[in-house]
Structures are given as structure tokens and as C-alpha cells.
């Protein structure tokens, strides 16, 4: 069964990417008060042309876009925000923390590199891998437009143009669902993806704040999401789907499988998050280091929150240990 996009007033604008997750989706929505663009893909000419073509197909131009609504602050969803807003006067709408979190995630300063290096060292990562990863990081820069403005903050529970705003932090701190209250469909971003397991990436906390356990937070949000009547889900990547409860269950069971792999392997002398990431991803290179480390850290924090592991710092490096009879 294919999604009745047209009945919902939705037009998908898929943008090809060089990343493993494939296309990134933008959605034009004309069923409300003026034209809305959900998400904004990449700051590339290809992205811009694809958007213009999609607009032309419905007899619109960029100037007709009244608002840009963001599902979260990640760079594959925000690239054209500035250009669209400048050309159309559209208001930029989304989670209140989007500019703050985008600023924390997409900094390319020496100071930010030092923060990343210290974080990874404290997780037991070998210094040559850390420096290799930091050398690669500028390659991401051409794809990043860091959202630094928000004309309309959308708090949890807010309502606009027929959509209920539901914050579902976890995959990112700004993940948001837009649930159309009468239309039988939702814009779901990267919170639930049918064929990809969305992973929380380690994030820098705002100054003065403690870091949160991202995977624990993600699972709480997934359970909330599972209970909501979302109808057709229009995701940030991949095709629309209707069975979001089954998709949530698949993601949760994937976390459970990883947990079991870690518990079956973890030696009594304990292991660092780096060693755990190496166990889960034996061929991990510098290109995916931060991602793989994020997965390992998330799983270890989840296991500890479930009372199945404990951790301690050993000379400034974190180690996780199995719970034994003695404990
Ligand atoms: Zn994405």
C-alpha cells in the first residue's frame, strides 16, 4: 500500500546524499494555512534545484513558502534553512533548543576539537584514532548549515496548522514529531525509521549542564511514540510507513540484541567503551569512529541503568564491569 501523499496535501522532495542513510526527505505541505516546508536537506545547489523543481510542479516558487518547520537540528535536515528563509521571508519554526544544540554540535573550532579529544580519551580511545578522526572532521563542513535563528519556538504540546507538537528527545535532543490531529498522518523526522536504527550521537551538553544518557532517553521517547496515534508516518529517510509500533519494537529489539552481545562478551576485568565499540564493530575506522563510540556508550549506559553493569573511572578512563555475585 503506498502512502496517499496527495490526499494529505504532502509532497516528498527526496535529496540524494553521499551518506550511508541514503536520501534525505523534505516535505512540502499545502494543506494548511499557507505553504510549509518540513525539513530542508543540504546546503547544496542540487538540493536547492530539487526544491525549486518540486515547487514549480505545484505552481509555486520559493517565495510562497510561509514557514520552514524542522524535525531536529541535524545537518541533513537543515541545510537550506537560511537560503529559503532569506528568499521567502518564511518563519523558521522548531524545537526551542535548535540554535543552541546546532551550535554545540557543529562547531569546528580548536576548542571544540579539544573537547572531542578529551571525551574520546576518557572512553579509552587510542590517540592515533582520535587525531585521525579530528583530521577528517572538516570534510563534513560543506554539508553543514548551522541553524542560528528560530522565529517561532514550538514547545512540547504546542499546536499549529492542525499539527500537535510532540518532543521525543533521544536520537537528538531536539527530535520532534508533528502529529496531524485529524488528518491521519505525522511528520516523524529521524525518531522512527523503518529500515535504519536511529542512533543517538554523543553530544556536548550546554555549559553548566550534565550530559544525559541518550539511549535511555531515546527508549523513553520511543515508548511514548509507540502509544501515539501517528497514522501514516513521513520520515526523514526512506518511504512512508503506517506500522510505527512495529518499527519501534524493531528498534527496541535491536538495542536488546546489542545488550546481549555485550553482556555475553564483557570480561570480568571490565572493558572501556572503546573496547566495547571494537567488539561491536571490529572493522571500525576513523570515518565512523564517533558514530561507533556513540553506539557503544549508549548501550553501556543503558545496561548500567538496567542494573546489569557498573562503571568506574580508572586513571581518568571509564570502564564497565559485569555485575557479579559479590556485587
Ligand atoms: Zn537524518
Structure description:
The chain is an alpha/beta fold and 327 residues long. The protein folds into two domains: 5-105 and 144-253, Metallo-beta-lactamase, Chain A, CATH 3.60.15; 110-139 and 266-322, Arc Repressor Mutant, subunit A (Orthogonal Bundle), CATH 1.10.10.10. 35% of the residues lie in helices and 20% in strands. The longest helix has 22 residues, at 244-265. The chain is globular and about 70 Å long. The mean pLDDT is 94. It binds zinc ion. Residues 24, 74, 76-77, 190, 236-237 line the site of zinc ion (ZN). The site of zinc ion has 7 residues, from loops.
Quick rundown:
With 327 residues, the protein is an alpha/beta fold. The chain is 35% helix and 20% strand. A six-stranded mixed β-sheet has the order 1-2-3-4-5-6.
Distinct small molecules: zinc ion
Strand coverage percent: 15-25%
CATH structural fold name of the largest domain: Metallo-beta-lactamase, Chain A
Task: Determine and state the CATH class of the largest domain.
Answer: Alpha Beta
Total count of helical runs of at least 4 residues: 10
Q: Can you summarize the main beta sheet?
A: 6 strands, mixed
Number of strands: 13
Q: Are there runs of 5+ residues with pLDDT below 50, and where?
A: none
Averaged pLDDT: 94
CATH hierarchy: architecture of the largest domain: 4-Layer Sandwich
Structural class: alpha/beta
Main sheet strand line-up: 1-2-3-4-5-6
Name of the CATH homologous superfamily of the largest domain: Ribonuclease Z/Hydroxyacylglutathione hydrolase-like
Using the alpha-carbon principal axes, give the shape.
Answer: globular
- Indicate the radius of gyration in whole angstroms: 20 Å
Overall tally of structural domains: 2
Task: Please bin the fraction of helical residues.
Answer: 25-40%
